[in-house]
Structure prediction request, 526 residues.
Amino acid sequence: MGIYVNPGNNLFEMARNFECYVDKSMLIAEINKRCHTQNRFLCVSRPRRFGKSMAADMLVAYYSKGCDSRKLFAGLRIEQDCSFEVHLNQHPVIRFDLQQFLFHKSHVDIFIERVQEVIIKELQMEYGDCFEIDPYGLQSVLNQIYAKTGQRFIFVIDEWDCVFRLAKEQKEIQKEYLDFLRALFKGTEYVDLVYMTGILPVKKYGEHSALNIFDEYSMVDSVGISQYFGFTEEEVRRLCLEKNADFSGLQEWYDGYLVDGLHIYNPKSVVDAVQRGEQKSYWTSTETYEALKVYMDLDYDGLKQAIIAMLGKSRCSINTRKFQNDMDTFQAKDDILTLLVHLGYLTYDRKKSEVWIPNKEIEEEFLNAIEGVGWEGLVQALEQSEELLKNTLALQEEAVAEGIEIIHQEMASILQYNSENSLACTLLLAYYSAKAHYLTPIQELPTGKGFADVVYLPKRAEEKTYPALVIELKWNQSAEGAIKQIQEKQYASWIEGYTGEILLVGINYDTKEKRHSCVIERHVKR
Prediction:
């Protein structure tokens, strides 16, 4: 048993001993299908604390011939799979965590040589009479071992993308590292399987990936293995039953990541909340809000407006295809938003190509990040939203118009207030406090004979405590005309069966007079 070659199972044993362990062992069955096949190269990227390293530890414990892990897998679901016995502790494994070689910037120039050095040193202990060390390094050593023994290896690489995070601007070092990996894996017979994990997908150069042999599974596209990284809703419910924890609270704080149709929870946050009996943001132990703020403050057209809209519970369209899979090559706001998806600050609906803030925990990180230069007025606008909602429910039309006017003025330094989209963005922010009593606002809701601009539905319809809000926005027209459109096109008809009282809210912005007007009426069912 070595550190890098044929490692032991101690790390997975500690995971199994953990009181909140969740069985993810069926990932092994999926990986077994790829062993010694053409699609034997996988790269799994997830935000920090989403279970990547635990999965890597499990695979090492399962495949490595340097240990006996049968007892560790006793009772887990994989034990019943037909492939379980075939590969259990039958493979030579090479495992390394790149972060262990790059824990300081001074290591950037030597880490590739150091990785090869320590692995070759351990290979000498077991295969020393099968190879000679030459200038071609680890690749040559493994080729020689395979030629003499027929031995094929499984590689498990954790934090594979560490160099792209630590040496963001050192392109030559990045390229040298990618060339090393390509030479190590592409077209080689000694590879039975390569399993890499990181935060970022495989780095692209130009239109093509430098490592196009890898199948990638990320927060953007992870079909087939999504349920194995992060906790599913079923797993969180089961954990709550076992630990007598409040599922609804965990759902509000940590649900919201949508990965290929599955609701996924950050396991680190869920476990911390269950163990400590307190639901709050545990994100700061993995990423600080300063890291988020760096990207939020970048001056890309439409970026701040997108963030403001998402704080107002809106979704934003996005093109993820141009992202270069690094942390400094940005050409448009979509690149920043895509990076935030990979970092776990946003979630992504692949079918609709939309992103949004996933849950209350991450929303708090955004609220922390908007305090300071560049976001003046936003905090004040959020604080005033509760009063605006009260005035709306009380049918105080002038107060509502005045409240939106104030928020508009406070947001003028951030938003270019010259379109209906800006008006909609301001409205969503103005009704920010509605999240306490209402579901996520629905924009362009198909109701009756058209599309309502914004609809707020109360969270618990059976209580009928809060009325639904159907809001129509106008630009250089009239608030009365907005109400008339709601009525004529029967925007409220679709939600009559869902809720009790319905308020119709018409808002107009006059660009000449630079003022808002508002009309509020109770909906009368026909």
